[in-house]
Amino acid sequence: MKTLLLARHAKSDWDVAGLRDHDRPLNARGLRDAPAMARRLIDEGVAAQRIVSSTAVRARRTADEYAAAFGIAPDEDPDLYAASARTILRVAAALPDEVEVAILVGHNPGMADAVAELTGSFVEFPTCAVAECSVDVGSWSELIEGSGRLRRLRTPRD
């Protein structure tokens, strides 16, 4: 059994004119929500061993907060930027088997779609939400559509 946490980046800043989508930073709310969600995951007993983030600034900053809380360095995967559900699950399927609990940090609608494809559960996925999914596989490479179960959806407002 593996645990996959699919996380949407915290709230980003749209106020900088001319900034590429990829380069948008977190806004004030995002800068509050990301460390608060990281602390919440720790407080609730999540023990992440690997964090993989989109290369977008807002996703990477969110992943950095999670990484600081868990005391591990995040990895980047450019495929997670604006990824489809299939791409997100392909990234998860490539995780090393010694990792039991992993967090992927990316974007919507891909993250919500990945939860639906993996678990059959359709969820609202606001910024900084984290879907915790149990995956009934011995190896990440066995991860397929329907192989997971949504254990819990955490949002910054609940």
Any key phrases for this structure?
six-stranded mixed beta sheet, 31% helix, 158 residues, 6 strands
> Roughly what percent helix?
25-40%
User: Strand fraction band?
Assistant: 15-25%
Are there runs of 5+ residues with pLDDT below 50, and where? none
Which of globular, elongated, flat, extended, rod-shaped describes the shape? globular
Biggest sheet record: 6 strands, mixed
- Helix vs. strand class: alpha/beta
DSSP summary, beta strand count: 6
Average pLDDT value? 96
Number of helices: 4
Element order, helices and strands? EHEHEHEHEE
Terminal CA distance reads: 27 Å
Topology:
Layout: E1 2-8, H1 28-43, E2 50-53, H2 57-70, E3 75-76, H3 85-93, E4 101-106, H4 110-119, E5 130-135, E6 148-154
Parallel strand pairs: 1-4, 2-3, 2-4
Antiparallel strand pairs: 1-5, 5-6
Structure in words:
It is a single chain. By secondary structure, this protein is an alpha/beta fold. Helices cover 31% and strands 20% of the residues. It is built from four helices and six strands, in the order βαβαβαβαββ. It has helices at 28-43, 57-70, 85-93, 110-119, and strands spanning 2-8, 50-53, 75-76, 101-106, 130-135, 148-154. It has a six-stranded mixed sheet, with helices on both faces. Helix 2 (57-70) links the parallel strand 2 (50-53) and strand 3. Helix 1 runs parallel beside helix 2 (57-70) and helix 3 crosses helix 4. It is globular and about 45 Å long. 42% of the residues are buried. The mean pLDDT is 96.
Question: TL;DR?
Answer:
The protein is of the alpha/beta class and 158 residues long. The protein is built from four helices and six strands.
